[in-house]
């Protein structure tokens, strides 16, 4: 690899500023403006990274094996039911991106919409979709090259014909069809920014530019909104009521679900109020302090999962006609399990719990009674679930770390395997999964999942990758990744740290790694790394960490605090310059989670998690692989770019610092199969090479 040229050197132009008595120095602030110089430098970094990665000795073999494993299983996800139809996103082994399929009552399946047919540069992918309750139409959100800047394609479910298209600026799956099956409400951003978003009413056949605003700042005196709030309108498929969900902060990392809400205010009103949105009699049910994280509805009752006065949450019921939360009925009391979500299925409430990192399901009559457990088919996770809008039926996609997803039907009594999800031909019988509880430095037990070949010797000489997220209350659920067998076959260890700031143990776990307590997210990752070393799984010269998005906080923090602990660090579209995050499009909505530079307290919180500001000259940093996508709508390329430039200038180790650039990619959503497999091969080859060199 000696013939690979050096990466281009970034111009240094230090910006000094003093905020709240704290002086900050930023040598690469100029990158934030973009422009020709930045993109020329970025192109040079991309070429250098590609040349380095392609020359890695393990890369070709890993990519071949990853492709072989990844082509063995058809993926089914994104399930929905309507009328006698089951909809799903399906990615066949040879497909670049998933297609939308429909299965009829007789079991016949067909492709309803292929985003590959959408014209334009790069590739297109389905971000989310919502079928009408009568099953006749599907509103399908499609974006280009992982940008998540979606246009809505309305598909005729009988013929597959494209009825119409609403231009881009749509994000999040808060789209509700009305009972006529020919109109829906949806959320949309202005064209130039992410402030003052609105919800609209669209009639099929009408000009989207003329869609009526039904929820927005300043529209209705009963609802208070700030410019950064997102107003989502939810119209259930049954009953006479509707909900306004006002999001004051960041939502779940993925746009598929209305679950994992945080910092939200909820209102209810008769759906007849859509006729006059400005005068609609909205009534507030719950505020941000009430800690509502998800909801479900019957015809006359709203069911809320709330962590107020219940650290692991409980389920409350309030009538739509008298939505007084102080008089709510407790349907499922607080307990040792974390109540994640609820769904109404006929006369029962289906309750999804998290029990020490494993999904559980209970059901209880809506009229009351003791919740009863449903036997789970595997010790794993409910990856997703969906209910029928008219029938007492639900579908649950269940998987484990070593168990491929299976699709189960709930009929009000029990779970039964539908046989619709194909069994994986990839044999994980020799792969072992172990759950550890690592004593953090303050004595708190931190869950750590460790996966490896069953014959692994604990001799301290195994290559290992440790990953963690630890923000937004996000839960690291068991995930079946057949491609990872390529790592386990080579003696690799993969470990998932369920860090504070995530949701492994509910609201308290989230709060324990939020704001001024964010240091715990970083030190938890370090403590988990040291525990793996102490048990003989690996050693510093063979240990790597990996994180994506907000997972750049624990990995970046561990990189600059303990560079001696790692052979390599891989960070994908990472948040690493938190003191400047508020100046990004998505930055303001993350203020409740991370803090704001506008106050001294907020700035100090941000400095905890700003890895870029903590890089020092002359420190021997490990090998570092940073990735970015030019279409990233959440973390702009200048975030990882600034860290790459700073590390390249400051490290004294001689180890590579690479910035991998995906020209037709974003934050990860909507990536093609080839992009996903190439990235995994790059990461594993980079880690192996760094380990071999140590």
Automatic annotation (TrEMBL):
<dbReference type="Pfam" id="PF02897">
    <property type="entry name" value="Peptidase_S9_N"/>
</dbReference>
<protein>
    <recommendedName>
        <fullName>prolyl oligopeptidase</fullName>
        <ecNumber>3.4.21.26</ecNumber>
    </recommendedName>
</protein>
<feature type="domain" description="Peptidase S9 prolyl oligopeptidase catalytic">
    <location>
        <begin position="479"/>
        <end position="691"/>
    </location>
</feature>
<dbReference type="GO" id="GO:0070012">
    <property type="term" value="F:oligopeptidase activity"/>
</dbReference>
<keyword id="KW-0645">Protease</keyword>
<feature type="domain" description="Peptidase S9A N-terminal">
    <location>
        <begin position="282"/>
        <end position="411"/>
    </location>
</feature>
<dbReference type="InterPro" id="IPR029058">
    <property type="entry name" value="AB_hydrolase_fold"/>
</dbReference>
<dbReference type="Pfam" id="PF00326">
    <property type="entry name" value="Peptidase_S9"/>
</dbReference>
<dbReference type="GO" id="GO:0005829">
    <property type="term" value="C:cytosol"/>
</dbReference>
<keyword id="KW-0378">Hydrolase</keyword>
<dbReference type="InterPro" id="IPR002470">
    <property type="entry name" value="Peptidase_S9A"/>
</dbReference>
<dbReference type="GO" id="GO:0004252">
    <property type="term" value="F:serine-type endopeptidase activity"/>
</dbReference>
<dbReference type="InterPro" id="IPR051167">
    <property type="entry name" value="Prolyl_oligopep/macrocyclase"/>
</dbReference>
<dbReference type="InterPro" id="IPR023302">
    <property type="entry name" value="Pept_S9A_N"/>
</dbReference>
<keyword id="KW-0720">Serine protease</keyword>
<dbReference type="InterPro" id="IPR001375">
    <property type="entry name" value="Peptidase_S9_cat"/>
</dbReference>
<feature type="domain" description="Peptidase S9A N-terminal">
    <location>
        <begin position="7"/>
        <end position="218"/>
    </location>
</feature>
<dbReference type="GO" id="GO:0006508">
    <property type="term" value="P:proteolysis"/>
</dbReference>
